[in-house]
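Summary for the lay section of the report: proteins are chains of building blocks that fold into shapes. Here we show the chain for Sac3 family protein c and then a coded description of the shape we predicted for it.
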Amino acid sequence: MAGRNQPPYRPRGGVNFSSSSSRSFHPSRNSTKNVNSEERKKTSSSNWDNKAAINGDIDDIQNLPSLVGTCPFMCPVEEREKRERLRDLAVFERLYGNPAKSSPSLAVKKFCRTISGKTLQDSDVRPLSVLEDTLSYLSNLLDSTEHPFEVVHDFIFDRMRSIRQDLSMQNIACSRVVSMYERMVKIHIISQHKLRRCSGSSISSLSYLNMEQLTKALATLFNLYEANRTSESIFENEAEFFSFYVLLHLDSKTQGTGETLSLWFRRVPSHIMKSTEMNFARKILRYFKLGFYKKFIHITESEASYLQYCIIEPSISEVRALAISCVNYGGYKLQPFPLAALSKFLMMKEWELESFCNDSGLQTSIDEEGNSCLPTKQTTLIHPKGGLHKYYPLESERFDRYTVVSNALKFHSMYVNNFDIK
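The coded shape description reads as follows.
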């Protein structure tokens, strides 16, 4: 892997960067796994270019001059001073809360859709080492509790797009950039997980835009894997990031790449297709499509990494809704189904299951022994338009252990153990 002092690699043909976390938050290292010549040929001939990943952060990147950034700060001095005059500082950039004063340690360069090549200078662009430090700074803000998460997300979202923009303008595509894109994908996934727990009129649009950038960042990451692949190695975290892309297809509203998943599978190298992460993702997708709700829930609980769970979580509600629908229509009218058994089956607390049933239009009752039950053959079952928006986590000791750890550690430290909470 390239070290911090190694000059950035710039491929001849360039890499298509997108607009806008595997198990390790550390820079990816090429593993020593061997890939046979046939697989290498398949990999090198695969074209990972995708329209969703081409120049999404810059309107006219082709007309920009070749740049090598020299800005030593997270935000160029000229931009910081201009935004101070205009009082255009985010809450995280204000020195002692002053909306007209910032500092080099607080201000972060904003994303700009339109960039003029005539006025752009090297001093306006941050070099790779500064971009890495900026991303680490943004990562540490993800767990901030001083402001509502939608405020935190909006700031990180915009400043990460600016990071990708600076990388695009310099056409940097070394293994250090691979690590940065892996980290940014992780942040998008965790942000989506946190946004589901927020309320407000803007959450829907924030989630949509976040998913859009997540898909584009993944497409660019796949390009970077290919640009940095050596003849005898693969990237350590590659398989899990490919699994993220598969799991995103659980949601029918996911903004895909324009091709079917079956065609995409044909271009995935066989050593990735055979990996544990991809086998898990394909099983989950198959169980979801076939309605095997018991297998879906229990394999998610026993095998999913935390990041995989963050992607799968919305589909768990759909699977649970399918399960109670089957119980309602398939059960005996004179034999209400005990909620205690059903809650264990669906891996949720009994009071959460009762609330979930009520949200779905079903009424619960109390039997002669004082136990809560779900009467069957009810005709009031509904599937809310747009899906159920309240999420009930899996009742899992494994994920509970993660919650305890995540509350005790800083964001960047949470990934040291590869999210392995088994």
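Put simply, here is one thing we learned. Residues 203-228 form the longest helix (26 residues).
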